[in-house]
TrEMBL record:
Protein name: Uncharacterized protein
Source domain of life: Eukaryota
Transmembrane segments: 12-33, 53-73, 85-102, 122-143, 155-175
Keyword tags: Membrane, Transmembrane, Transmembrane helix
Organism of provenance: Stentor coeruleus
Amino acid sequence: MTKFTLEQFMHYSSLLVLGILYMNFIGVCVFSITCGSYIPTLSYLATFRTHDVIVVLALTLFAFTLVPVFISFHIKTYGALSLDEVVFMILLEIAIFTLAIMEGLIDESNGIEFNPVDNLHHFLSITLCIITITWIYYALNFIEIAERSGGERDKLYICWTVYKVGVVFAFLTLYEWHFGYTIYNNILTNPFVESLCEWTLITIAIRFPVLLSKPLNYSIKFSSKDKN
């Protein structure tokens, strides 16, 4: 009997996505720019030819790895939610999946001269951030409702803690986006801090499904019979 858990899948898939993004980051620093004076953000990486394709690949891959998490969530909470709540969560999930892929494509097109969709980047980023924060908030609450035994409370507590840290970094990143390149630029508000906040947020976001998979506790078992 072989057991393959959602946690295992998310652990390895998230490491793969992060590995792709960070190797791309290293590649840009080695071959394209000097990262000693500027740490490139993910959006900035996507403006480099070849490197932009890697960003699109990573974000698209991440979007598809979220599908098992969404499915497991609905299996976990089956019967505990009303129809309106189920539809609400599904709509958020579709939005997250679509926007994650669009974010990579929009970033990639930012490198095109006279690109007519440049202004969409921040709008899509903020929208994706808000929708994701909303989905996680309701998902954790709904899992608590469905988990009547209380056996997953410690795992949910960890999820809530990391979620709050992620929300803080989301607001810090948005703050840096807005003020990092203005006259308010200072030791705490500048492109360097912006990059640190954004990469921290990205890392938390990509690894968070691993934590969320723990209280979902979904697995697939395979059995094999030897034929004599």
